[in-house]
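Every protein is a chain of amino acids, and every chain bends into a shape of its own. The protein below has been through that process, and both of its lines are reproduced in full.
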Amino acid sequence: MDGERLLAWIGPEPHRVDVAAVRLGSDHLSAHGTSTARDHTTEYRLHTDTGWVTRRLEVRTRGDGWTRTLLLERSADGTWSAHRAVEGTARTDEDDDARLPDLTGALDCDLGLCPLTNTMPVLRHDLVRRAHEGARTSVNLIMAWVSVPDLTVHASSQTYSPLHPVDPGGGAVLGFSSEGFATVIEVDADGLVVAYPGIALRIVG
């Protein structure tokens, strides 16, 4: 799995282009990327510890006359912290509230509309291999979900389920559900999203 990947996706709602450069290790990853929509651009940097557990996510969104930033970190003892800032016309009262929701048990960030952040739970729970072996046991998770473009952080209950393999290439189709929403996601052998209906379709990489 060790190596570097350059990926690009298109997304329909909102219409946008996402690009990510990913460095994959045997049990960790780092990445930086951008997402460009009609009215805003998102830039991020992501680093994980061993076990693909989130260590640090830096995000910046920019629009006409405003900029928001978020630094979201998870310590080794499982404590999450965040620092948010905003410049320009987008400021609201919520920007003065630095509190986080209860993220007890959360190991991953999930950046809104970003297909890359699905990769960590897929790799940690070995869902591609399990799909190839016919396993069907679901994995229930709590994620630190970051809404875009406002960059507020929410606790999100999510479920991943291995469904079936994709050949050739060694990928898999996974079931995904979260709080009333359900779909299927195709990933490649490295656990990177190929197709996520309504969110992203890979066009490069």
